[in-house]
Amino acid sequence: MLAVAIYNNQSESEEELQFKKGDVLAVLDINFNGLNGWWLCRRGEEIGLVPGNRVELI
């Protein structure tokens, strides 16, 4: 699955992925490890958690 960022995201921890509005992310898992609202995504070579409310599936 792919998602597009609808907002910028400044990471607040090492586990969180930083991205800009318009970036396309590969969605690896939704509600990762039971974390409601957090998605595991990849952008390029980076993998990290993404707040699901900042992206939209495409």
UniProtKB/TrEMBL annotation:
Alphabetical list of InterPro entries matching this protein: CAS_fam, SH3-like_dom_sf, SH3_domain
Domain SH3: 1-58
Protein name: SH3 domain-containing protein
Keywords, alphabetical: SH3 domain
Domain of life of the native organism: Eukaryota
Keyword tRNA-binding: no
Transmembrane segments: none
Naturally occurring in which organism (per UniProt): Helobdella robusta
